[in-house]
Amino acid sequence: MNRKIKKLAAAFLTMVMLLAAMPGQLLVSYAATGKITFSDPSVTVGNQVSVNMKITSSSGEPLGASDVMLEYDSSALEFVSGTNANGGAGSIRVVGAMESAEQTTFSFTLKFKALKAGTSSIKVRSQEVYDANSQAVTIEHVGNSAVKVNAPETYSREASLSSLSVSPGELSPAFSADVTEYTVTVPGDTEKITVSAPAKDDKAKVVVEGNEYLESGENTVVCKVTAEDGTTTKTYTITVVKSDEVPSESNMESDSTEAAAPGVAADSGNWQVAETFNEEELPDGFTVTEYEYNGTQVQAAVNEQGTILLYMTDEEGNGDFFIYDAVNGLLAPYVTVRMAEKTIIVLPPSEIPEGIGLPEGFVACTIDIGSHTVDGWIWKGSETPEYCVVYGRNADGEKNFYRYDQKEMTLQRYFPDPDAEDLRAKYVSVAEDYNGLLDDYRIRGYIIVGLFGVCILLVILLLILLLTRKPKNTYKSEREWYREPENMKQGRKTERGIPQNKRTIMEEEEPEPGDLDPEPEEEESPVRKSARNLPSGKRTPAKSVADLERDIASSLAKEAGQAAKEEPPKADEDEDFEFIDLDL
Which strand (E) or helix (H) includes residue 91? Predict the structure, then answer.
């Protein structure tokens, strides 16, 4: 029995350990997998191109929703429109939603306008994809789109520099547009050199690399010129030899004086004011004039409002106009925002398709645009709104909400506030985490209930085994402790040998008082005393001879046991017993 209990206990402990290890396995999330792919179209400068993007479930699980942020070069491509997409200025947000229960692919079409020749990439900045159960999908492959923009035949293929100079140091040999290899030696404390490399064609692009973090010995500086057509390139290489000599204090003072000379932008140190510039590049509304900058006469531009523009070049040879603040002595880039002319037809609210919600936080109103009054929406609680929202259709036939500036009378495609979207995304994330915790606790609850049930079952089995076990005779009965004397056994045998009818006659015959001699009274036994001393109302009923024999034997056994405790029996003496004649 002990062996069985040990086996059950071992099995129980093994089961508990297995069940304790199960939650870690059950809570493993087997997430769906997917991929994001793009098409690689080609287009000519000035034309529109469509880029196809697909989000596909690789594991076959249905998709529920997606939110993808894309980035692109806004100087090469201009975003026009897209499927469930909005953005611009280098960023696009694409949102997908489940349309059918078994949908495993989200397809989007994005339209761009090619601005300049070359190869431009559209990349994924961030992505969130969920399956039909709102569980995150693991994206195993994130692709990108390479849009090849071909230049028209009229685009220039000129990829030469108009000049090339460095500071500090002088190039060897002297610059020539056809020479592409140069050498210059700089002092040992020079960390970087400034390279001035303007292109011969203003529409060509110049990129300078390797002019910083110079090391002792030879360093290579590369100037790469890309022509307007985007494919023709030319590379100029400058070998910079950094010597081990450190300039003297007099040379250092000369360098510091040169650094503080007029013509250097004090706020950055990477731009220099040019003395002249090409008047064809002058912005509209400005006229050429002479201006004294830090004691030097330079060519500048000024408009009717008194804004002063200075032309500056950077270390890569690029040039641009900067606004000069004469009061504070600060220079800032001259940036203008140009809006392409677009025609939007304002539509009534009845044209809004079913399922498209109105802008959140806006209320309906009427708006005066020109000499007409149209229906629109303004921000709730705004008494004098400066802008409103209308529903319209663009030249491509696409319908959308537009933001109308009532002061400047301009239109911009409406999309929700990014901050509100971030808050919504955070709320969705918190809700998903909370739901995940609920699922985890629910699974743990099931496991705990299962463990509790197993424990109850094992306890019941142990109780059944204990109750059904056969007890061993580990203790002797009272009859074994008391051995009847031989004469009593003989008397009982004699009594059992008398027939029942004769035994009854003998019991019924009673001797006459004078027939028998009087015998001395025997001492009354304890059993009879106890029976006689019982109250009359509580005396036990008459017992048979066998019952009396058992009672007497039990009483004598108890008395013998007590006597044995009080005085140990002697080995040579026989035990004394009191016998009672049962025939009396």
Answer: strand 91-97
Q: Amino acid letter at 495? A: E
From 216-225, 257-266, 470-479, the region with the lowest mean pLDDT: 257-266
Cis (ω within 30 of 0) for the bond into 173? yes
Is the Cβ–Cβ distance between 291 and 273 less than 8 Å? no
Give the integer Cα–Cα distance in Å for 183 and 219. Answer: 10
Alpha-carbon distance of 336 to 309, in angstroms, equals 13
Q: Mind giving me the DSSP string for 114-126?
A: E-SSEEEEEEEEE
| Distance, CA of 331 to CA of 354 (rounded, Å) | 53
Residue 116 CB coordination number (10 Å): 20
Tell me phi and psi for residue 52, to 5 degrees.
-95, 130
Other CB atoms within 10 Å distance of the CB of residue 479: 12
Q: How many helices (H) and strands (E) does the chain have?
A: 8, 29
Provide the token pair at 466.
């204990």
- 47 or 540, greater pLDDT: 47
For strands 91-97 and 85-88, give the pairing: antiparallel
Contact 191, 240 (CB under 8 A): no
Instruction: Please tell me which residue, 268 or 237, carries the higher pLDDT value.
Output: 237
Rg of the chain over Cα atoms, rounded to whole angstroms, equals: 55
**537 secondary structure, DSSP code:** G
Cα separation, 522 vs 19, whole angstroms: 78
Most confident range, picked from 348-352, 426-430, 455-459, 503-507: 455-459
Query: What are the helix (H) ranges across 27-138?
Result: none
Integer CA distances (angstroms), 430 to 32, 132, 198, 347, 426, in order: 20, 18, 53, 39, 6
pTM over 0.70: no
Integer Cα distance of 364 and 514 in angstroms: 139
Instruction: Identify the CA nearest to 192 among candidates 221, 163, 172, 222.
Output: 221
Q: Please, are residues 494 and 487 in contact by the beta-carbon 8 Å criterion?
A: no
Q: What are the φ/ψ torsions at residue 417 (nearest 5 degrees)?
A: -60, 125
Q: Map residue 230 onto helix, strand or coil.
A: coil
Three-state DSSP at 136 gives strand
User: DSSP for 334-363?
Assistant: -----------EEE-GGGSPTTPPPPTTEE
Distances (CA, A) of 446 to 17, 61, 436, 450: 16, 26, 15, 6
Q: In sequence order, what are the residues at sequence separation of 6 or more whose Cβ sits closer than 8 angstroms to the Cβ of residue 292?
A: 298
Of 62, 129, 60, 56, nearest to 94 by C-alpha is: 129
d(CA 241, CA 234): 23
Q: In the structure encoding, which two tokens stand for residue 400, read together?
A: 């959308």
Burial group, residue 517, by CB count within 10 angstroms (0-12, 13-18, 19+):
exposed
Comparing C-alpha atoms, which of 159, 118, 316, 157 is closest to residue 223?
A: 316
